[in-house]
């Protein structure tokens, strides 16, 4: 073959190859252009989507927390325009207290380590106003695994938080109304019991007076003891009623369930009346339950009232405690059971299935809210327990409460007002006594004088102010909380402290449970003394306050 032919053939082959390569290149360019156009369309759609979202603040941060993108929702929620915020640190959205606590750095660190951080807190708008924010931060990495920034989503959930708070308040109000309804149902039995107590006190004191008039003093001490015992019974009953009516949040502690049942026995007997027999069976060495003392007391009381109403002609109420049998649970410390059973009319299937529903009641209008069993059920679930009903028409009702066993020993009980400390005499110190009740004021004044104190007695805050200004030797202020004239004992204590910063103060009150709910109620060097109290307790508290 001639050289020219060979060259021509090779040129033709290369030309053909170049044409094919060019065609492939054109196809690749076209495909790339289509892909780039698709990416541009996707990016445009994404931008439109992000910018169209107004209920969420959607924006990007670089690895150091600097804002690199900003959507319309972010501008609406936070108040900054894109030009104002790009290049700024996202830390400006946090409150000064959160920023000082390092919350922005913590959030980025958590997102970097776990891939996501989600939390709720207060955020600050451009105008300085605050809103409750739900915040999600996701870390973003490139194909090499290098952190390139964060995607941050913020939503204003202030209204949701406000709604939840309103719901919580409503639930608390409903629970409190049910407690007060239960106390209302106690009034008949309590009034009867108080009348019995007062009859004992009045009768004993009347006999003391008669014996003194007749000069027969040998039997006086016995009648004084009768009156004192009756008065202590009244004090115990009042304390129990105050505990039931007390408004307070759920506080789960380690509780001796057997002790609770025993402490309520007298109150339950008064509530049930003479026609209903009460049987109590307590398992020995029962483990403590993880529960709230006031809530479980209220549950027992409500179940007892329901049982009483189911037995209008009388019957038997049985309260038992027991421990879950071994092997009853797969893990954890296990459970204890509290059962309240009656021999009343019972429930049919329809009533039994609805018994735990809120506002469901079989009682006549005005005789019940239908909240008792539903709130007991909700309380049991809240502490990790359960409530169950077994009942048949004509065969009575049994309610079993399941409570988790506590990991710790029972919470120490408060020292009773009856456990008086030894009396310690005075050494001529001057005590300012402020009490509007003339009988209590006279008793306290005479008791203090007998113990060797000098006493200045006043009936209101105005007289106490005069005494404080006139007598620099006053060593102790003892004041009742409820005083006439518009200034209560706590306000008087504050005034006295303004005059004499180191003056010890004793506040006497019959509303100590409410005072105890306020941690700031007492200042340093102030002591609360709950009425009623024994005189030995009173004088010991006085001596202790003076001795510091």
From TrEMBL:
It comes from the Bacteria. Gene3D superfamilies: 1.10.287.130, 3.40.50.2300, Histidine kinase-like ATPase, C-terminal domain (3.30.565.10), PAS domain (3.30.450.20). The modification 4-aspartylphosphate is found at residue 480. Residues 42-115 form the PAS domain. It catalyses: ATP + protein L-histidine = ADP + protein N-phospho-L-histidine. Residues 117-169 form the PAC domain. Residues 4-45 form a coiled coil. It holds the Pfam family Response_reg. The keyword Endoplasmic reticulum does not apply. Residues 189-407 form the Histidine kinase domain. Residues 430-546 form the Response regulatory domain. GO terms for molecular function: phosphorelay sensor kinase activity. Keywords: Coiled coil, Phosphoprotein. Its EC number is 2.7.13.3. This is histidine kinase. It comes from Segnochrobactrum spirostomi.
